[in-house]
Amino acid sequence: MCTHDPTLVFGSSGVFMSVSQKQLLAAVALSLGAAGVAQAQSSVSAYGILDLSFGSFQYAGLDNSADNSSTTRVESGQMTTSFIGFKGTEDLGGGLKALFTLESFMRLDTGASGRSNTDVFWARAANVGLSGGFGKAVIGRMDNFLYQQALAFNPFGGSFGFSPTIRLTYGKWGPDKGDSGWSNSIAYYTPNLSGFTAAVQVQPGESQTESTSTGVMAGYANGPFAIGFGYQVAKSAEAPKADLNDGAKQTFGLLGASYDFGAVKLFGQYGQYKGSGFTGTTAATDNVKTKLYQLGLSVPVSADGKVLASYGSQTRELTTGDAKHEILTLGYDHFLSKRTDVYAVFMRDDDDRDGYKAGNTVAFGIRHRF
Question: So which residues are the signal peptide here (predicted)?
Answer without folding.
Answer: 1-40
